[in-house]
Each structure stands twice: as C-alpha cells, then as structure tokens.
Amino acid sequence: MAKVYERIADSLREKIRAGQLKPGDRLPAETALAGEYDTSVPTIRQATGVLVAEGLVEKQHGRGTFVRKQPTRVVRDNARHQWEKDRARQPEVERLKTGATERDTGLTVNDLIFEANYKQVPASAELAEVFGIAEGAMLLERTYRTRYQEERTPLNRSQSYLVLDMISGNPDLLRDDQEPWPGGTQNQLWTVGIELDRVVETFQARPPTPEEAEELGLPAGVSVLILRKVGIDTTDRVVEVADVVLPGDRTELTFTTKLTRW
Questions:
Q1: Which of 67, 94, 125, 246 minimizes the number of CB atoms within 10 Å of its CB?
Q2: What is the structure's pLDDT at 52?
Q3: Looking at 51, 67, 83, which one is the last position of a domain?
Q4: 213 Cβ neighbours under 8 A, 6+ residues apart
Q5: pTM for this predicted structure
C-alpha cells in the first residue's frame, strides 16, 4: 500500500504531466500543501523530495520549489542506422541539411552547438579484442559533445574509436576541425571504401559517476544508460566502436522488430 508521501508525490506528478503545473511554476508553500493534503509539513517535504530525485522539480534556496524545465528529449530508434546509411552517399548539399542528432531530437542544425576533439591513442586490451587487432595498435579516439543552444548540458557524452590504418587514406578524417561531418561516420567510412553491414548495440544502466552527473546535469538518483555501439562492415571487420553515456531522465529507446509471417 502506498505511503502518504508517495500518494502526494503521485498527485503532484500528475499535475505536472497534465500541464496544471508548468515549467517555471512555483509549487504552493509547504504549509499550503500540508493543508491541501491534510498532512504534515515533513510529509510534504518527503513528497517533494521524491519529485526532486526524479528531476521534475527543483528547490531554489530562499525562493521555494519550482517545476523544472525538462531538458531536450532524445528518442533513439533502431531505424536511425539505415537512415544514416541511406544518406551516406547523397550529395553534400543534402547531407548538410540535417543529421542523426536532429532526427533524434526534432531540432534543427542551427539549434545545436557541436564540439569534437580527436587524438591518436594506442588500443587498450579490451578495444583491441573488439576490433580484432593487436594491443597497442593506433586508434583515432573521437570525443563528441552536442547540446541544444538554449541548454547548458550536452545531450550525451560520446567517444568513438576508428582504426587508424583503416582510415588513413583520407587525411580529412583525422581532423576534428572538419566536424560536424555531413553524413556522419557512415559517410566518413564510405570515403575510404568502407560500407557498414550491421550495427550491434548493447545497453546497460548504472549510477552516473560524479563527473557524468555534473556534466549532464543529472538530478540525484537518476541513472545513466551506457551504449556500446559496434559497426561491422561488409567483410565482417569491426570498423567502429563507440561508447555513449545517455542521461536516463531524457532518453527514450524505441526498437521495432519486423517479424517474418508464418
């Protein structure tokens, strides 16, 4: 049976979701809420504490408790990879119009601020095993941060790895000042004759590290989703490994599986 503070949290949560309490609205004072729900102020504090942990409200010192403006939601589905592949060989003028992040968020190119940093690193034992290369072989490590210009936190934290020998035929692929690259990684790989056959994605959930919580602006108690994306080409080589940290309070994963009919 739900406790009193849980029922109050449910009621306030429903008001927020129904739009009765909008982003930026101040919740009634704790004494007023205690009177409304016929309970004590400590119970109200427990209820609002639940909503703080969920990222629905935030307490502002000396001002009260306010409905939190929800950060941009990212909806990621498994059709995005075919969408990217279909674009990889389009003319640059078409590829410049939009990208995968815009597709996932509904934002436009002009809405986003994009940062990329490249460096060459030796393959760790773990990455060498995934790529099927010798430990210490050189990789290009690419760190990406993309954020909506009206928000201070990025949509995710992403690190992508490519085998240096596979991409050295196009020097532009080694330069982070060429980002954001029209057509993304699949177009980059196509410029050196690599075609993806499939993408394998594995998800896990865990509490964020302090650094992740700070950078992604995560409320207390919100987990992160860890995505390991492995791109495999038409010759069965692993050609890209990406590790993406997705904030659990604004990421939706949608997978549609077409089943063969009897």
A1: 125
A2: 86
A3: 67
A4: 222
A5: 0.83
